[in-house]
Design goal:
The chain is mainly α. The chain is about 35% helix and about 0% strand. It contains 2 helices and no strands. The longest helix has 23 residues, at about 5-25.
Length: about 100
């Protein structure tokens, strides 16, 4: 996929996620606390190997659950892990009039 293809696919994924969450919030019996709703972001510093290990561990935990079938005591949950590197902050030597240095 090209960068623009990724941009469109990601935008579509986010639109679906927003639509699904709004549908949840529009239900009469909505209770985010009781339903353990979560939308957290964590920025973590990882080597390539650590990232691969983290993804492998997510798969190890999630894959067996994908075979669960509907039952009266189960509720379907949408899980949307997203991994991408964020822009690195400039180092002190890269700071200048157009590039702020680290906050103190």
């Amino acid at each position: 996929m090209t960068p623009d293809d990724h941009r469109r696919a990601f935008a579509t994924s986010m639109a679906v996620l927003v639509t699904e969450f709004n549908a949840y919030l529009d239900r009469e019996d909505v209770d985010p606390v009781a339903d353990l709703i979560g939308y957290r972001q964590h920025a973590v510093w990882l080597t390539r190997g650590e990232l691969e290990e983290m993804i492998s561990e997510f798969r190890r935990v999630i894959l067996p659950l994908l075979t669960n079938q509907p039952r009266p005591d189960r509720t379907q949950h949408l899980l949307s892990p997203i991994f991408f590197p964020v822009e690195q902050p400039p180092t002190d030597s890269e700071s200048g009039p157009d590039r702020p240095g680290p906050c103190t």
